[in-house]
Design a protein that fits this description.
Pfam families: GTP-bdg_M, GTP-bdg_N, MMR_HSR1. This protein has 18 helices and 18 strands. The strands form three sheets. Strands 1, 2, 3, 4, 5, 6, 7 and 8 form an eight-stranded mixed sheet that branches. Helix 9 runs antiparallel to helix 10. The N and C termini lie far apart (89 Å).
Length: 556
């Protein structure tokens, strides 16, 4: 026998037995509820003075019997009926109201959050034997004022409804209403709502979300909508207010989203609180970046660094692990070399972290030995640094005629690539490509990938490559300079290089002010302009590098 759920305290054995017998009732698939089941629920509810609810599947079987108090019902976790990628849960929810009242706000919120096929209340009038029924269902239009539609009450005795046809029609309408972006994503792809909760200006929040959009695109996530909240103070459980958080979740479900991505870093407690409200996966910017790193890591160094960062991120989130933790793992935010390790207990994860840190130290020693050999060889070392997706790997390929992987995505390069660049008169320099920088990179991630940036310590010249066509070019320059200072590289000789100048004519047409700003920045930083996709544009850069390393030699 299936168990009863909810408030059983104070019930007599015969009352409990009557409630348990509700599980034996069957409802024809085309009916919402039978008169017999509705009548029995009303009788028991009157007797025990508590609301009673049943959840019925599409085959007509009663799957849950729930007992509340006089004012409401707390719906248990529906782990046997996960929502997944479906737009409806496959359960209808019918419960009693003892004072003949209509749907409460909590009722309708449950309908929207839990995505029931339909919700109905049996309205028991306390003054007489009359019973009415009222139904509510989800609204198929994503932009509707309310995510649900409430019908007028009808006497239970005369109520008729072709439930099967109604649900089939609603599902078809919901499918049509799902955002175009969601329909275009492959079945295995994620569909996200991006959320920023910040005290910064709206303009700053929008800029940061634009970058988060690019990160999502890099991770293969379709962005369905963005939400910006600027509260006076942060809610310790949800960042934003609980009511607003519910609205966001309902909106996400309406659009067919599968994941919520926060621009701000969430604490383990906040992830748990939000996950208790919704079955959608909940991650933050840090975890999204980790996922991208996991996709991009190809060398042993990179794989070890990714796994170490993932385990350090997930360890504090294992406390009190419940269903929300299984939603946190796997897919976006949970892939990579450490994927299976995330399901081990805390002790084994700590052991794994210690082992990986030892491996990283050993790899670091190997890198140091290789760097010392290069230094002893007396060859100048040039490191290309810059914001992510500035074109660093493309420039390395153009300068050295190499084939380092490039793509128009953030963090396309994670592993350091080193090549030789030959100049006239048998002179050479070592040139390295590094992982791109990004705004608000958490210190935990910076620490995990500091080994990748060790190469910069030995550089004789830093080429600071800038995507001069990016609307946030000045901010990106500042971010890179700030990170270099944090890495104690502020005194390193550097050369500013503005990339993608081939796109400037298009920028001049679209945004004359933006074009003027680029020209001013170029003069201010005494930048050399290139197009990494056009090798013939690199002559001035090569001449300047040659001048800096061999100033007394005539330039070729």
């Amino acid at each position: 026998m299936k168990q009863l759920h909810g408030n059983l305290i104070g019930l007599k054995p015969n009352q409990i037995a009557s409630l348990e017998r509700l599980y034996r009732r069957r409802v024809p698939p085309d009916e919402l509820i039978t008169a017999e089941l509705a009548g029995r629920m009303v009788e028991i509810s009157r007797e025990i003075r508590r609301q009673i609810g049943v959840l019925i599947d599409r085959h007509g079987a009663v799957e849950y019997v729930i007992i509340g108090d006089e004012k409401g019902i707390f719906i248990p976790e529906l782990s046997d009926y996960p929502l997944g990628r479906r737009l409806l849960r496959g359960l209808r929810y019918i419960h009693t109201h003892l004072k003949g009242e209509s749907f409460s706000e909590d009722d309708l919120t449950d309908l929207a959050l839990l995505r029931f096929d339909l919700m109905a209340i049996l309205q028991i009038h306390p003054d007489d034997r009359r019973v009415a029924i009222q139904t509510a269902s989800l609204t198929p239009t994503a932009g509707a004022a309310h995510p649900y539609r409430v019908e007028a009450s009808e006497p239970l005795a005369t109520f008729r409804m072709d439930f099967g046809s109604s649900v089939s029609h609603l599902e078809r309408e919901l499918e049509k209403a799902v955002a175009t972006e969601a329909r275009e994503v492959a079945a295995s792809g994620e569909r996200a709502i991006l959320i920023s909760v910040t005290k910064e200006s709206r303009e700053e929040a929008e800029d940061s979300l634009e970058e988060l959009k690019e990160l999502a695109r890099t991770a293969g996530v379709a962005v369905l909508d963005v939400v910006i909240q600027r509260p006076r103070q942060f809610n310790p459980r949800y960042l934003m207010g609980e009511g607003k958080m519910r609205e966001v979740v309902i909106r996400a479900l309406q659009l067919g989203a599968t994941i919520l991505i926060f621009d701000q870093e969430l604490s383990p407690a906040q992830v748990r609180s939000i996950s208790e409200m919704t079955e959608l996966k909940v991650i933050d910017r840090s975890q999204l970046i980790l996922d991208i790193f996991a996709r991009r890591a190809t060398s042993l160094d990179g794989k070890v660094q990714v796994e170490l960062a993932q385990l350090k991120y997930i360890l504090p989130r294992l406390t009190g692990r419940g269903v929300q933790m299984s939603r946190l793992m796997g897919g976006i935010g949970g892939r990579g070399p450490g994927e299976t390790k995330l399901e081990t207990d805390r002790r084994r994860i700590r052991d794994r972290i210690a082992k990986l840190e030892r491996e990283l130290e050993e790899l670091s020693r190997g890198r140091q030995q290789r760097r010392q050999k290069r230094v002893r060889a007396g060859l100048p070392i040039v490191s290309i640094v810059g914001y992510t997706n500035a074109g660093k790997s493309t420039l390395l390929n153009a300068l050295t005629r190499s084939h380092v992987f490039t793509e128009n995505l953030l963090f396309a390069t994670l592993d350091t690539s080193t090549r030789r660049l030959r100049f006239p008169r048998e002179r050479e320099v070592i040139i390295t490509d590094t992982v791109g920088f990004i705004r608000s990179l958490p210190k935990s991630l910076m620490g995990a990938f500091k080994a990748t940036l060790e190469e910069l310590q030995d550089a004789d010249l830093l080429l600071h490559l800038v995507d001069c066509t990016n609307p946030r070019v000045e901010e990106q320059i500042h971010q890179v300079e700030t990170i270099l200072e944090e890495l104690d590289l502020g005194d390193k000789q550097r050369l500013m290089v503005f990339n993608k100048v081939d796109i400037l004519p298009e920028l001049k047409k679209k945004s004359p002010l933006g074009f003027m700003k680029v020209r001013q920045l170029s003069r201010r930083f005494n930048a050399i302009t290139v197009s990494a996709t056009n090798p013939s544009s690199l002559e001035s850069l090569l001449q300047e590098m040659e001048r800096r390393f061999w100033p007394s030699s005539p330039q070729s």
